From TrEMBL:
This is Putative F-box domain-containing protein. Residues 4-33 form the F-box domain. Pfam families: F-box, FBA_1. Residues 94-292 form the F-box associated beta-propeller type domain. InterPro entries: F-box-assoc_dom_typ1 (IPR006527), F-box-assoc_interact_dom (IPR017451), F-box-like_dom_sf (IPR036047), F-box_dom (IPR001810), SCF_F-box_component (IPR050796). Signal peptide: none annotated. It comes from the Eukaryota.
């Protein structure tokens, strides 16, 4: 009964209850309870804000983040929502989210796993590679070994790192591997991303771009591909809408209208793409980097780079924007995550952007 009740409590309360007794602390920190609590936690939106302001004539900047449930998105104001200092320099470095853990890229240093609910982080260094390498990362969970994995795409080589061991190893890569053109999307235990192949015909005079979806299964560590819907000219993002894989694209270079396709699957034997939404009033077309869907209202959240978070109603075709926290700040990123206790038994504390170090007791004279 204790486990059933505690698995539905907020993370903040569970962190406090660990001080009640040793047995309760061990139960809350057990891997089985942490996984159960993550499965039962509702999804939330984490907004990262960038604020530029003047202090005594000097221009300063700061980054902070806010948590929102589906019914608390800031359409008008942030009443009752407390901002928390963002503990990293680059506010746009997040590229993956799984079970409440955000995976961030640190240029030249590797990746960092960060749980904003427990404010703990784990740093993992990159393997030795050639200079000038610009890798792309992916993040997910392997239920077979019950561990998180990080995929490093460094064409034409793929590396995988298991978080518990923090060791990298090279794996087999697909025959063709080209430029990654979208954010990764975690769906059914596999990582999905859009790749672009540049193909040249007729004595290098004509060039066209071939887009397709690449997948990576975290358990089998096998890559495969999925054909994109036709016709499509530019594909700029993947997402999960009501339990199905979805992609956003433009149909031609001269049209700004966007189409969101959903891949329907039946009995795991056949799958086909169908049109779910047409964004007829969006004028920036291929500049939509990511998109989400609010299950409560069926509105779409669009994340065009550098333009704030847009809210689009498919029925009324009305486009609005989420409110900024203040007149001098704007939202630079939004991610879906859950409140979880992951990383509770590893890594370092990360509170208000500073690592909390344990004070060493001074030796007695």
């Amino acid at each position: 009964m204790t486990v059933e009740i505690f698995s539905r409590l907020p993370t903040k309360s569970l962190l406090r209850f660990r001080a009640v007794s040793k047995s309760l602390c061990a139960r809350i920190g057990s891997p089985a309870f942490i996984r159960l609590h993550a499965l039962r936690s509702p999804k939330k939106f984490l907004c990262i804000h960038h604020d530029g302001y003047k202090d005594e004539g000097i221009y300063k900047t700061k980054n902070f983040y806010t948590f929102h449930s589906e019914g608390q998105l800031p359409y008008n104001s942030y009443m009752g929502i407390n901002p928390i200092k963002y503990p990293f320099i680059d506010a746009r470095s997040t590229f993956g989210s799984c079970n409440g853990i955000l995976c961030l890229r640190a240029f030249g240093k590797g990746v960092t796993l960060w749980n904003p609910s427990t404010r703990r982080k784990v740093a993992i260094r990159d393997p030795r590679t050639f200079r000038g390498d610009s890798p792309v990362y992916g993040f997910g969970y392997d239920p077979v070994i019950q561990d998180y994995k990080i995929l490093r795409i460094s064409h034409p080589t793929l590396f995988v790192c298991t978080v518990k061991t923090r060791t990298w190893r090279k794996i087999a890569s697909p025959n063709e591997c080209s430029r990654v053109t979208s954010y990764q999307c975690l769906f059914n235990g596999a990582l999905h991303w859009v790749e672009t192949h540049v193909r040249t015909l007729l004595f290098d005079k004509y060039t066209y771009y071939d887009h397709h979806i690449m997948t990576f299964d975290f358990s089998s560590e096998v890559c495969s591909s999925i054909e994109l819907p036709e016709p499509t000219w530019e594909t700029s993002g993947l997402a999960v809408i009501k339990g199905s894989l979805a992609v956003i694209s433009r149909i031609s270079v001269r049209h700004n209208d966007c189409t969101i396709w959903v891949r329907r699957e039946y009995n795991d034997t056949s799958a086909f793409w169908s049109v779910a939404f047409k964004l007829n009033t969006v004028s920036y077309g291929n500049q939509v980097d990511r998109f989400f869907q609010l299950t409560a209202t069926d509105d779409l959240l669009l994340d065009p780079y550098g333009r704030g978070i847009k809210v689009y109603n498919p029925e009324t075709e009305v486009l609005s924007q989420l409110a900024d926290f203040s007149a001098s700040s704007h939202i630079v990123g939004m991610y879906i995550c859950v409140e979880s206790l992951e990383l509770l038994d590893m890594g370092n504390s990360c509170y208000h952007g500073k690592q909390i170090a344990r004070k060493k007791a001074k030796p007695k004279k």
